[in-house]
Design a protein that fits this description.
Elements lengths: L1 E4 L18 E5 L6 E10 L2 E9 L3 E3 H15 L1 H11 L12 E3 L1 H14 L3 H19 L1 H5 L4 H6 L1 H12 L7 E5 L6 E7 L4 H14 L4 E10 L4 E9 L3
Antiparallel strand pairs: 1-4, 2-3, 3-4, 5-6, 7-8, 8-10, 9-10
């Protein structure tokens, strides 16, 4: 989190942002998808102190949280989701909208609590959610899947086509980065990079995509780096022989 004194607005104008509330105003930072919280305190009639707190790189769209809630309700019952919200006490209060943006740790903390309650590893639960999320995407965004003839063609389109279209629907979405290497005809490599450390979710999405196209691949995973700022993971897909 960065805190800085604002002398100008982000647009470069000399006047301070207009506030509906004289004490606090929240807005989104355009294409950079950063949460901007303006705390405005009237020091005098002609002096206003503005503090800008920026939390970037870790936000997630509400549609993901909504689908997680629906999965938990379907698999474990509504009482489990109520427990997770109470145990985690997320900043959102557990109330999500599909177009809203929330910190990704609300999801990871709920998965951690679900792991404690069910005695299932967090990695397993996160992959299971990836499977569920992929099935949801097939229903909500069918054209993404219909436009690709097979698994590899779909995976190749993630970064330069699918994410481009997703950004049109959700302009402030912060999406993971994907790149691929198909120079080896026997091994397809998909590289994943994200600040949210959710490679297990990507793993589940990949596995469910393979199932959607009715194909059979062995998916090997290599975690390249994982720290507080970025997770980089390499997935290797090798087609199983009949």
């Amino acid at each position: 989190m960065n805190i800085e004194r604002l002398d100008k607005t982000d647009s470069g104008e000399n006047e301070l942002p207009k506030l509906n509330n004289p004490y606090c105003h929240c807005t989104w930072a355009g294409s950079y998808s950063k949460i901007l919280l303006f705390l405005s305190v009237a020091l005098s009639k002609s002096s206003i102190l503005v503090i800008k707190i920026t939390m970037g790189g870790r936000s997630m769209k509400g549609i993901v949280f909504i689908e997680f809630k629906q999965m938990v309700d379907a698999v474990y019952g509504e009482a489990m989701m109520d427990y997770l919200i109470e145990a985690v006490n997320p900043a959102s209060g557990g109330s999500y909208t599909s177009v809203g943006t929330y910190h990704h740790t609300e999801l990871t903390m709920m998965i951690a609590k679900l792991s404690e309650r069910t005695q299932k590893p967090t990695a397993e639960l996160t992959r299971a959610f990836g499977h569920y999320l992929a099935r949801t995407f097939v229903v909500k965004f069918p054209d993404f899947f219909k436009q690709a003839r097979n698994t590899l063609e779909f995976l190749k389109r993630i970064d330069n086509h699918i994410h481009v279209e997703v950004a049109k629907l959700y302009p402030d979405a912060e999406l993971p980065e994907f790149s691929f290497d198909d120079t080896d005809p026997d091994v397809f490599i998909l590289n994943y990079a994200s600040t949210r450390n959710l490679a297990d979710l990507a793993h589940g999405l990949i596995n469910e995509t393979i199932l959607y196209y009715g194909e059979s691949y062995q998916v090997e995973r290599e975690n390249l780096t994982e720290d507080n700022t970025m997770q980089r993971t390499r997935f290797k897909l090798v087609q199983r022989k009949p």
